[in-house]
Amino acid sequence: MVSNRSLVASILIIAAVSAVFGISLYKLQVQPTAHQPDDENQNQVTVFKAVLEVDGYLASGHWARNPTTDLPQYTGIVEYSIANIGNAGASSVRVTVRVDGATSVKSIPILEPQSTYRNSSSISVTYDSSEVFIVEATCSGSSDSDSVLVDANLPRSPEWTSSSSITELFITPSENNVASTEDNVIENKFILLPNWVALRDWVGNNIDYKYDSETYGQSDYWQLPKETLQRGTGDCEDFSILLCSLLRANGWSANDVYVVIGEKGESCHAWVKINLGILGWYNIEPQADGWNTLVGDFLSLSGYDAICHFNDSQFHWTG
Length: 319
Description:
Blueprint: H1 4-30, H2 39-43, E1 52-65, E2 72-84, E3 90-99, E4 102-111, E5 116-126, E6 129-139, E7 142-152, H3 176-188, H4 195-206, E8 208-209, H5 212-215, H6 225-231, E9 233-234, H7 236-249, E10 257-264, E11 267-275, E12 281-284, H8 295-301, E13 305-310, E14 315-317
Parallel strand pairs: 8-9
Antiparallel strand pairs: 1-2, 2-5, 3-4, 3-6, 6-7, 10-11, 10-13, 11-12, 13-14
Helix pairs in contact: 3-7, 4-7, 6-7
């Protein structure tokens, strides 16, 4: 039989061996791995690349007269930039600008990282229409583009101020419809009838009065002479703008015929004034025909105070 002393000794030996083995196993399990190589970091390689970024916006604009059509057009200045936001230089950058149906191309030899090329271009848009300005930039490995929509909505209720000039654009003596109408009226008039009377007769007899609220759903909307001729209707300023344009087309000086805007109480009205030489200045009610001359025109316009008068090259504030 094994003595009690031998049994106790055996148990102590087994316990000691187990303790040592357990500690070693624990150390093996919790051994830190920081010393092990990071394969992902070791394999990461920096890639050098040019990255183009294009941006454009409408910086400014103004209204002017198209020298060919005599109609209003809006000319805007679009500013654009081409940035290299990458970490390598962009070489032989091709810049393409598309505007007004035309295309222009230029080249930037080198665009360094984090640098920007800036430029601007003009765009002309016919009234009540729009055009898209497009700029594209391309280099090896990168390209970008941007577009700017330019709307040319002609103000149809111009402000009457001491510096207003957009009103002048509504008088269009050289526009095709106006010029051909003037030619036709003068060619077919009674030989002894003064030209200015023949033109006022034609306007008064061939254009019907119609409120802007009926035609456009708003209280005030100025028509161009072309539109009044095509519609055959208009209100007081439309009659006046058309007659002034016809008289200018007939050769009357810009110093001798104007559209006049006036007030009487709460109401506004438009008419035409013309310099008849030795007879002096005469106010015409364009909605009436030649039978209204002298007495009728005076009665129609009595009590109105002029605020401003203008034609295709002048604007005068009087109010």
